[in-house]
Sequence to fold (69 residues):
Amino acid sequence: MTLLVLIALALLLLAGALFFGPYFIAYGPDGFRDIVRRGDARMIGLFLVAAFILAILLPGGDVALISSL
Fold:
């Protein structure tokens, strides 16, 4: 299960890098303020942060789904 969580976190980081990376490379640090003001980029950024936090916090306990009968 830990491997799946690590893969999920890596994919979330890759998604963020692929979305924000080209804009950051093209316009530099000054363009980063512009992308923060855009509504669609803010929504996607908040979604990625929320998914990252959920991927870290949710798989905390080992819950048995099958009862022992």
Q: What stands out?
A: Residues 2-58 form one domain. The chain has a mean pLDDT of 82. The longest helix spans residues 2-37. The CA atoms of residues 30 and 37 lie 12 Å apart.
